[in-house]
Structures are given as C-alpha cells and as structure tokens.
Amino acid sequence: MKTTNTTIWITGASSGIGRALALHYARTGARLVLSSRNREVLREVEQQCKPNAAGVLVLPLDLGINSDYSNLVQQVVAAFGTIDLLILNGGISQRSTVIETPSTVERQLMEINYFGTVALAKAVLPVMIRQQRGHMVVVSSIVGKFGWPLRSSYSAAKHALHGYFETLRTELHRDNIFVTMIMPGRVNTNISFHSLKADGSSHGKMDTGQAGGISAEACARQIAKAISKKKKEQLIGGTEIIMVWIRRWLPALYYILVDKKTQQT
Length: 265
What we know:
Blueprint: E1 7-11, H1 16-27, E2 31-35, H2 39-49, E3 55-58, H3 70-80, E4 85-88, H4 103-131, E5 134-139, H5 152-172, E6 177-184, E7 187-188, H6 191-194, H7 208-211, E8 214-215, H8 216-228, E9 233-236, H9 242-249, H10 251-264
Parallel strand pairs: 1-2, 1-4, 2-3, 4-5, 5-6, 6-9, 7-8
Helix pairs in contact: 1-8, 4-5, 9-10
C-alpha cells in the first residue's frame, strides 16, 4: 500500500511496535512524525526511515505530561500540512498486584496510557475535522477486554480507551474520521523491561510468554493491513488471543484459567 502524500504520526516510535510501524510506513513513501520521550533514539529511527519516507519530523513528547499538545500539532501542520493517520501506540505496562501498588503508580499508569493518549487525540481532532478526513488508531491490548494478574491499572487504562474511542467513532463518523482499535497479545518487544513495578521502578526483564510472542515487524504488518481495511477492531498475536473469545463466550472457563494463572504468580 502506497501512502505518498499521507502524513502519519506515530507515538512510541522509538522502539518495538512503534518503530516497526515507522519503518513499514517509510517504505510506502509516507510523511512520518515520530514521537516518544527519547529524542536520541528517535533520531536513529529517523535515519533509518529517511531513505524511503517522503519526509520525517522528530517530535519528542511525554504522554505523562499531557496538559496541552496543541503546539506540537501546529508544528506537524506547519511541516506537512495535514495529519491523516494518528497511531496512538505509546504507553507503559505494569507488573504488580493491586494490594502492593500505591495510588501514585496507578495514577502514573493512567496518565500515560489513558489521559495522555486522549489529550493528544483531542489536540489532533480539530485538524481532522477541518480536513473532513482522518484515521485514529489506538494500540490497546487483549487485557483491554479482560482483567489479568499483575496488570490491574494497565488493564483499566486499556478498558477506558475502548470506551472512549468507541464513543469518539460514533460521534465523528459523519466527518469521515475512522477509529481502529488494535489489541495485541504477546509481542516480542521490550515492554516488559519498562513495565512499572509497585515501587515505580522498571521490571527490568523479559517475560517468558512475551519472549515467545510474534515479532514487532509481524505485528506492524498486521496493524497496517487492519488500517488499510479500516477495521474497527483487530486482534493480533498467537494462541493467547483466544482468551478474548473465551472471556466472551465461555466465562466460566475464563475464570478457571485466570485463577490458575493467579496462583502461579
């Protein structure tokens, strides 16, 4: 799929799924806006994208500081004129139980995964409404569909994103603005390394299940395919994604499985 003259803004673009999406869309000739907290690593991704992309703008942002992103939006419009596709991929996971996690860490998880994502989307919306076209893609998680041990506030934030952006979809469909919810399962990225523990420090290691997940590149290709088809939702992963259907159609089995998992943690 060629995306020449299409401006694609990707958060969490310095690593993992976000980086893989940036490289994928660079090869299609898109104009790219790359965002994350790490300017230095973004510059490295920029250099990898430049040979094929129609243009690349590095725009660092911190989703934990989300009072106003309008200035960043103005910079994108000044550079490229439009914002056609916003991929809200940035976020941080969790590895701690409910009882041990203080409210400060819970709020941090919600600020980054929910409030920061919503704030950026709202800042971009006036541009898309003015254009009378646009596409927002939210990278959620399969735990946005059910609860899972050690993921309480992360799961809560992902649940909240589903409610918010499904509502947004209904309100803006007449403006030719689409919303796609992406629900990855296990993807082999560094997300578990950076996941927050109860004391707010990083988990610092790769989860066994995640190590066996699909590659970020394979995930990015499936996301791009779902975007091109304007799908409303897309599950991505291995056999673990069946848990979404078990939770929906066989809830008794889901509770058995999740209780067993809890006993193992």
